[in-house]
Amino acid sequence: MNSLLLLFLVNDVCNQIANDKHLQNGYHAIGFSQGSQFLRAVAQRCPSPPMRNYISIGGQHQELQFEGVFGLPRCQGSIKLCNFARMLLNYGAYVHVIQAQYWHDPLDENTYRDKSIFLAEINNEKVLNQTYIENLQKLQNMVMVKFTRDSMVVPPESSWFGFYAPGQAIDVIPLKETELYKNDRLGLLQMEKDGKLHFLEINGDHLQFTEKFFISEIVNKFIK
């Protein structure tokens, strides 16, 4: 699925929601894995009818890198081989290939912001879209679930908008230390002040959660 198609699908979903008579008084949205970014884009681009509670479970809000080195699943070869494979992935990362819409190279932020069609756009890292900020702040709650041993989301802190410190790919910084937060490009700083941000953590791999957790921590607290 390419990035332009993904944005088209966001708009298509917006139209379906707007025309659904059962949703006119508002609705809750739960996104799993990549669906989390998709539904956040819906919240930012389509304020009516209102999304009330947005729940992201194992989302990749700063990037998606499959387990291994920068998107290379379990690179078990030599360092040279892994680095070569990563170079090839970087070469095609911002064209319309699978996962390109979520690729975010911490070693080349300028190219990411310039070439990324989907992720940088919905993270408000291109031209600042004030409407995105206003629409996201209309949420009653924004719930983000992180899996501490996530092997599909690298770094796992991306589920909480954390990311690598600029210019390297070792040290991870939390949301509050990112430029996205400090410059309040999505309104997250204000949302936290308003008590709308909720950070939940599960000691497990990607999307490994129990029914008990889902009912007690998600449904009972944010859906009922």
If you had to describe this structure to a student in words, what would you say it looks like?
GO terms for molecular function: palmitoyl-(protein) hydrolase activity. Keywords: Disulfide bond, Glycoprotein, Hydrolase, Signal. The protein has 224 residues and is of the alpha/beta class. It has a single domain, classed as Alpha/Beta hydrolase fold, catalytic domain (Rossmann fold), CATH 3.40.50.1820. The chain has nine helices and eight strands. The protein has helices at residues 3-18, 34-45, 79-92, 109-115, 119-122, 130-136, 179-182, 188-193, 211-223; strands at 27-32, 51-57, 68-69, 72-73, 141-147, 163-164, 172-173, 197-202. A four-stranded parallel sheet has the order 1-2-5-8, with helices on both faces. It has a two-stranded antiparallel sheet with strand order 3-4. Strand 1, helix 2 and strand 2 (51-57) form a beta-alpha-beta unit. The chain is globular and about 50 Å long. It starts with a helix and ends with a helix. Residues 66-74 and 88-98 have low confidence and may be disordered.
